[in-house]
Structure formats: C-alpha cells, structure tokens
Amino acid sequence: MPARVYAVANQKGGVGKTTTAVNVGACLAEAGERVLLIDLDPQANATSGLGMRANGASTHDLLDGTPLAALAKPTPFPNLDVVMAKNDLATAAVELSTREGGERYLADALGGSLDAYSFVFLDCPPSFGTLTVNALAAASRALVPVQAEYYALEGLSQLLGTINLVKARLNRELAVAGILLTMADGRTRLAAQVEAELRKHFGDLVFTQTVPRSVRLAEAPSHGLPAIAYDRRSAGAEAYWKVAMELVERS
Ligand SMILES: Nc1ncnc2c1ncn2[C@@H]1O[C@H](COP(=O)(O)OP(=O)(O)O)[C@@H](O)[C@H]1O
Ligand SMILES: [Mg+2]
C-alpha cells in the first residue's frame, strides 16, 4: 500500500500542529508502522521536539532536489524517521515562491520515494505560504488541529477553502482527514461550547477523540521526547494514542 501522507496544517500558530504531528507519528511508529515526519517549519519545533538538531542536510535540501533517502534520518524512536528543518527554510520558502511551479516541489521530491513508509506527516508552518501549499500539494490528506478557544472557528472556513483550492488546482487526491480539537480544557464552559459549535458546523469531519490541555504534553518537547516516551500514563499521551487509532480508522 502506498504511504498515506498527512499535511498537519492550520495557518494559526500555537494550535497544536507540531504536537499532533510528533505525537501521532510517535504512536503509529510504536504500533509498528514505518513513519516519516518531515519538518516544514523554519522554527524546527518538530525536529527539536524529537531531541534532534539539523547540522547538515535538512528540508531545504529536499526542496532543492536532494533525494529523500539521503535526508531522512532515524530518530531515537524505532520506526520513526525525520527530515529535519533549520531556520534557513524561511529563505528557501521565499526563493521557492518565485520559481515556476514552485508549489509542486515537495510533491515532486516525494513522488515515488516513500515506499519505505506507511505514514508520512508534514508539519506545516503557521501560514498559508509556499511551504504549506507545497505540503497540501504533496499530501493525500489534511489533518487540521484547532485549539479550543473563542476564535477557533474563525479562520477554519478560510483554511478549508484553501484546501479546496489546492485540491482543484494542484492535487485532485487531497481530502480532509479530520479536524482535531486540541488543548480542550474539559472543565471550562468555553471548551464545551467550542466543541459543540465545531461539531455542529463540521459534523463527522471532527475527530471523536479530543486532546485535553495537558502540562505533560507541553513539557515533553523540552526533553526531546514524544509524550508516550516522556509520560505514557499522562492524559495527553493517552489521548494521542486514541487519535492515532482513529486516524487509521478514518483513512
Ligand atoms: N494539548 C496540549 N496541552 C498543553 N499544551 C499543549 C498542548 N498541545 C500543544 N501544547 C503546547 O502549546 C504550544 C503550541 O503547540 P504547537 O504544537 O507547537 O503548535 P503549532 O505547531 O500549531 O504552532 C507548545 O508549547 C506546545 O507544547
Ligand atoms: Mg509548529
């Protein structure tokens, strides 16, 4: 079966894209799937969140034509490989946006070279820029984390519109895998209201499983660990296990 490629995307920052990409990826890897995480954010949070640091080659080189096999590095976690990002990715993105067909570089770079993997996660930066468009053009599914806050729905329609545009213009195969509610603080009325609104507007597109606000999830990256490696019993780690299983069922 060809690799399933998920673009973890939302133009807002701090909504849980990186946390979702790292933790869902780590859970599937632990379940025995071959997983690749590609860090597409110049801030390189997914890279550092796995305890890694790009010294040499990085995502920039992938967009410049270096074969994936030379760039995908094993992480300390079995079955989980990563293409690391460095901050030079920001300049690469600007340069890419000036090139003819610049939206399709990642899709071309990945085409035919994902045989070693069953799941690929593209951790997008917080914008609709070239890197996110490249990710959506290369993905088969968009995975959309939204933070349980008052403005959560604002911007979501815009994001779904962008996904449809990319589908029409660049990638017929693209679909939304699901909208995942993150940082949901079960005790607050606000979180419950946001969840109800989300389900009312988007129905089955919303993951049944939500991710609670969890200090352990926020701490784990500073130790360079996915939550299941940092504190397996934490509510956050357990939630991401269920998200990973639901993702498999949804695809
Ligand atoms: N469920 C959660 N509970 C508590 N903190 C979280 C949770 N999800 C993410 N965080 C923290 O919130 C911040 C933003 O999350 P992150 O995944 O980096 O968002 P994005 O990639 O969308 O910018 C990070 O510091 C992260 O550790
Ligand atoms: Mg991020």
How would you describe this protein?
- This protein has 251 residues and is α/β, with parallel strands linked by helices.
- The protein has one domain (4-250): 3-Layer(aba) Sandwich (Rossmann fold), CATH 3.40.50.300.
- Helix content is 42%, strand content 14%.
- A seven-stranded mixed sheet has the order 3-4-2-5-1-6-7, sandwiched between helices.
- The longest helix is centred in the C-terminal third of the chain and has 16 residues, at 235-250.
- It is globular and about 50 Å long.
- The model has no long low-confidence stretch (mean pLDDT 95).
Q: Strand percentage, roughly? A: 5-15%
Specify the helix fraction band: 40-55%
Structural Rg: 17 Å
Low-confidence stretches: none
* Heterogens: adenosine-5'-diphosphate, magnesium ion
Write the layout of secondary structure elements.
Elements: E1 4-8, H1 17-30, E2 35-39, H2 45-49, H3 59-63, H4 68-71, E3 73-74, E4 80-83, H5 89-97, H6 105-110, E5 119-123, H7 130-138, E6 141-147, H8 156-169, E7 175-182, H9 189-202, H10 215-219, H11 227-230, H12 235-250
Parallel strand pairs: 1-5, 1-6, 2-4, 2-5, 6-7
Antiparallel strand pairs: 3-4
Helix pairs in contact: 1-12
In short:
The chain has 251 residues and is an alpha/beta fold. The protein has twelve helices and seven strands.
